[in-house]
């Protein structure tokens, strides 16, 4: 039977990789716990704030805040990006893409200033990433992300708990491979790549808009 990816099981899996004793469920004060707990929090933040996975991607529909068109900017509407998703402790991390909520075409002409988004649409579907709260509930983590978190923790605590720089290097290489593997798995789960054009390529868009001030 596979191990349920709870916080305790994830931390103990990381400890086994560095040759350390496992933690009991009621151990929240030992030095080992303090080290691996901080590494757990750091791993969640780094992995999910810097990468886009289906697991940490959400969608929210937004309507323009202004009742009348803006006249002092090249865009007629503005939207307030959510700092916290409605009804959950999920923090907005960064924008993935925008689309029209009924016709579902991608919206590529927009500008973000702080937490305000400007564009010419009246309504938007906003897809964004977030850093999940895995302090209490980690059971829904896919296996490939569970392995990624374990390796991130293990390579972070290896020198402090084992004193072996060689083990640290080995675990770091394993983590980098697991990260690449996770991205491959995500790519296979997504739709087939669309035709690259002026409307779908961010590289072409950046090239055409280079040197302009909006």
Short description:
The protein folds into two domains: 7-51 and 133-189, no CATH class; 55-132, no CATH class.
Termini separation (Å)?
56 Å
This entry's quaternary arrangement is single chain
Could you report the average pLDDT, rounded to the nearest whole number? 84
Round the Cα radius of gyration to an integer and report it: 21 Å
- β-strand number: 7
Taking strands numbered 1, 2, ... along the chain, how are they ordered across the largest sheet? Answer: 1-7-3-4
* Helix content percent band: 25-40%
The shape, in one word, is elongated
Give the H and E element order.
HHEEEEEEEHHH
Sheet/helix structural class: alpha+beta
Biggest beta sheet attributes: 4 strands, antiparallel
**Tally of discrete structural domains:** 2
Strand content: 15-25%
Low-confidence stretches: none
Total number of helices:
5
């Amino acid at each position: 039977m596979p191990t349920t990816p709870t916080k305790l099981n994830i931390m103990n899996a990381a400890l086994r990789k560095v040759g350390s004793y496992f933690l009991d469920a009621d151990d929240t004060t030992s030095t080992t716990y303090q080290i691996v707990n901080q590494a757990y929090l750091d791993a969640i933040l780094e992995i999910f704030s810097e990468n886009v996975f289906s697991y940490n991607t959400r969608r929210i529909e937004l309507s323009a805040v202004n009742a009348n068109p803006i006249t002092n900017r090249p865009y007629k509407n503005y939207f307030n990006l959510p700092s916290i998703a409605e009804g959950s402790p999920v923090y907005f991390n960064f924008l993935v893409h925008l689309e029209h909520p009924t016709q579902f075409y991608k919206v590529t002409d927009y500008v973000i200033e702080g937490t305000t988004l400007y564009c010419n649409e009246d309504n938007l579907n906003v897809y964004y990433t977030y850093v999940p709260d895995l302090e209490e509930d980690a059971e829904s983590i896919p296996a490939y992300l569970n392995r990624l978190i374990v390796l991130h923790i293990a390579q972070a605590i290896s020198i402090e708990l084992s004193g072996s720089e060689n083990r640290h290097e080995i675990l770091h290489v394993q983590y980098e491979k697991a990260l690449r593997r996770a991205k491959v798995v995500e790519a296979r789960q997504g739709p087939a790549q669309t035709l690259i054009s002026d409307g779908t390529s961010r590289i072409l868009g950046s090239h055409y808009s280079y040197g302009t001030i909006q």
